[in-house]
Here is the input.
Amino acid sequence: MNFGVFAFQAVPDAPHAETAQPAPGSDPGSAAAPPSTFGLITPLLILIPFIAILFFQNRSQQKKQEANISSLKKGDRVITQSGLVGRLVSIEGRYAELQLPPSGTKVTILRSGLLGRDAEGESAPNDSGADKSKS
Here is the structure.
């Protein structure tokens, strides 16, 4: 293989400022033009509506979640963000207490960890009576 193509070449010294000459075809009196004000504002005009939309969507979603949690009452079957399903024993301040089936273990979680009422559990029939009749 011939690696001669990749050999380093000597770079000539940069000309001094007093001997610098403008490139051919360029106007010697013109410098680089600064960007226009419209060019600087355009990204902001595009981003601000998107940020506002995200902010208001998040705010409305928080209001719905808070209304959902405040509508819960003692004895409701609830689901948490971590996937626990249980009966709501109490909800006070920052904390909520759940009773987990079938052992009846009581767990204290943050109120913000509640997702809401478990709709699937509400419509399902109680199978505990059917299990007792079989034995």
Notes: The CA atoms of residues 20 and 73 lie 83 Å apart. The longest strand covers residues 85-92.
